[in-house]
Amino acid sequence: MEKEKALYLLKKTGALLEGHFLLSSGNHSKYYIQCAHLMSYPDIAEEFFNDIADHFRDYDIDTVVGPAVGGIVVSYGVAKALNKKSIFMERENGIFTLRRGFEVKDGERVLLVEDVITTGGSILEVANILRKIGAKIIGYASIVNRASGRFKPDADYYYSIKMDFPIYNPDECPLCRANIPLVKHGSRGLK
Fold it and tell me: Of 8, 47, 110, 151, which has the maximum CB count within 10 A?
């Protein structure tokens, strides 16, 4: 997807926010991508799902897996576009696990998807757990790549748009020093 189009769609849906945000990683940023706003417009979100699916269409994939919460709808949308199975993993006692009767079999070929990848911590945690079960990780995908080189995948990685926003360690955050109120939108339960 062309960057200009992706950026326009994120802004149009209210998914691109500006302020002072606590990220899932614990770091801070002036910008936040709230893909839940994007997902509230299914026709627009579908453009991103199709973009990701088009990249992986010729890969031999059995299942599309996303970490909860951000990867649930992305997994469903990409799997639908590829006509594959979609499941998600969710945290139980702080650790990603397969619940709700979901299974991944030994040798199952998996595409891992997420809405936004900043550090890649969640999706890599899911990948490691699936590998222990015997899954083969075929690739990674996200709607937004804001990793700025921090995400080091061990398989093909595709994203619809790359957005390199600065992130700050809380101890060095200029937004904190400017007394701009901190907002938490992430899903890991950080305080």
Answer: 110
Query: Who has greater pLDDT, 99 or 150?
Result: 99
Backbone angles phi and psi of 107, in degrees to 5? 90, -5
Indicate which CATH number applies to the domain containing 172.
3.40.50.2020
Q: Which two tokens mark 149? A: 């080189």
Q: How many domains does the chain have?
A: 1
Torsion of CA 106, 112, 118, 121, to 10 degrees: -10
* Domain, as residue range, for 78: 3-184
- The alpha carbon torsion through 158, 3, 57, 107 (nearest 10 deg) reads 20
CA distance 183 to 64: 31
Residues 6 or more apart in contact with residue 123 via CB below 8 angstroms: 67, 71, 112, 114, 117, 140, 142
Is 123 part of any domain?
yes
Q: Give pTM, 2 decimals.
A: 0.87
On whether residue 191 sits in a domain, the answer given is no
pLDDT at 190 over 60: no
Query: How far apart, in whole angstroms, are the C-alpha atoms of residue 95 and residue 126?
Result: 9
